[in-house]
Every structure is written in structure tokens, then in C-alpha cells.
Amino acid sequence: MWTWGVFGKMALAGxxxxxxxxxxxxxxxxEAPAPAPEIKEPEKPxxxxxxVTADILSQYIFRGVAYSRDSVVMQPSxxxxxxxxxxxxxxxxxxxxxNRFGLKKRNSRRAVINEVDFTVSYSREVYxxxxxxxxxIYYYLSNNTSRYDSQEIYGGFSYKFPWFEVGFAAFxxxxxxxxxxxxxxxxxxxxxxxxxMSLDLYAGWSAExxxxxxxxxxxxxxxxxxxxxxxxxxxxxxLMATLNVPIGxxxxxxxxxxxxxxxxxxxxxxxxNRGESNPGLSWDKKHNHVYGGVNLxxxx
Length: 300
Description:
Elements: H1 2-30, E1 49-57, E2 61-62, E3 65-66, E4 73-82, E5 85-94, E6 112-127, E7 130-141, E8 150-160, E9 165-173, E10 179-191, E11 198-210, E12 219-220, E13 225-226, E14 232-247, E15 251-262, H2 266-271, E16 288-299
Antiparallel strand pairs: 1-4, 1-16, 2-3, 4-5, 5-6, 6-7, 7-8, 8-9, 9-10, 10-11, 11-14, 12-13, 14-15, 15-16
């Protein structure tokens, strides 16, 4: 009996030990240290951006109209941007102004800054690839170019497809020459296999819906004067190619070539020239223009 008593106690102790281990295992597992939580780095606040650029071009063409002739123009620009808001100052420096419509002096041949533009805009991507933009432009014009400055409000959109981009914008003159300018475009940027270079291709078209007969006078061949009607027509088209060559991280040099052309109808006479008694708007009397140059940009 003594021997079975000892073995019985040993068996009972073994069973109790197994029961304790089974009961204690979940608790031991629960007390094991949990993995450390993943720590996310805080998002960097959006930084202020800026750029300084300068175009050196063979001619100044704006919306199909030539505002220089037989001279080199320089067009410096400065832009600051923050969270979609951008402010820009742009100017045109004509190295030898030959303005045949000069109000103070015609064909002065002076080196002069004859235009400074101030732009404030806001852009926002409202859907992947779709960006809306709106803004205000103040055109400060020299007193030899115009008696009045010009002011525009504008709005538009752009959409990026996988291979190209399309866009549309409307500009409304709210100063002294009421009218609406419409433009639409298709563009594509192609990455090149050399040193981070790229090629930008652009094709654009426009229409002018003027509410001021003096702003866009329509030559009348039958009278040698001008028609008594508003200029509301397809206006000018534009083709442009730009080669972007980066130099380091912040600097880029971009040679470019462009072609502006009248889109037919009244636009040919309004932009170009019918005669000395009823000239078009271009200083060089042409309605088609090929020009080129180089852009230097520094981004920070």
C-alpha cells in the first residue's frame, strides 16, 4: 500500500502540473511584448516655390499680332508660388522699337521696356489629371503703345491624358477694350534619352469676340477704311517646339521655334495689312510669323 501511495501522489502531482501549464500558457502568451508600432514620418509642409526666367527672341508675338519688328526682344519673368497660388511679373524689352503706330513717336528705334504684366492666379487639381485655373492680369503698356492699360480676368482647365494634354481658357477684358479671347490647345512632352532632356510640342488655336470696334478694326476693301462692326472671329493659331536641356539641378536652357498664323476670314486683314489707309494690327504688316530664340530658367 505504501508503494502505491507514493506512486499515486507522484501521478497526481504530474497531472496537476500539466493542468497548470495548460492554464498558464495563454497568460504567458498574453504577457509577451507586442511588436513596436510603425512610426510614420510627419509630412513635410508644402514649400514656397519660385522661378526666374528670361526669353531672348527674334520677335515679340502676342496672340498672333507682332509687337516688334527687325529687333531682338528680351522678356524676363519672375514667379512665386505657394499651395496653388502664383504671382508673376513679366516684361518686354525691345532693343530697337519700331512701332509704326507710336502715339508719341513712330519708329523711334529706342531700346525701351514697353510692357510689364502682373498676374495673380490660383490652380487646383480637382480630379486626377484635371486642373482648374483662374486669375487676373494687369497689362501696363507704355504711353507710346497705348493710352490705356489693359486688365483681364480669366479661367480655364487642363487635362492630362497618358500621352498628351489638352486645355481651354477664356480671357475677359474688363478695362477699356471690352471683349473675350478664347484659346484651346494640345501639347505633349517627350522625354529624350540624353542627360534628362525633353522635347515639348504645342499646338494652339484662338478666337476673339471683341465688343470694341477700335480695339480690332476690320479693314474694308471696298471703301479703303474699316467696317462698322465688331470683330468676332476665329483669330490665330500657334505651333511651337521647345527643347529643354537641364544644367544641374535648378537651371534649364530651352531653345525654341514657333509659328503664328491667321486663321482666315477677317483675321488675315485684322492681324496683317490691307494698305496704308487701313492697316492691320501687326507692326511688321504680316499675318503669319515665324520666330525663335532661347529661354533660360532658374527654379528654386
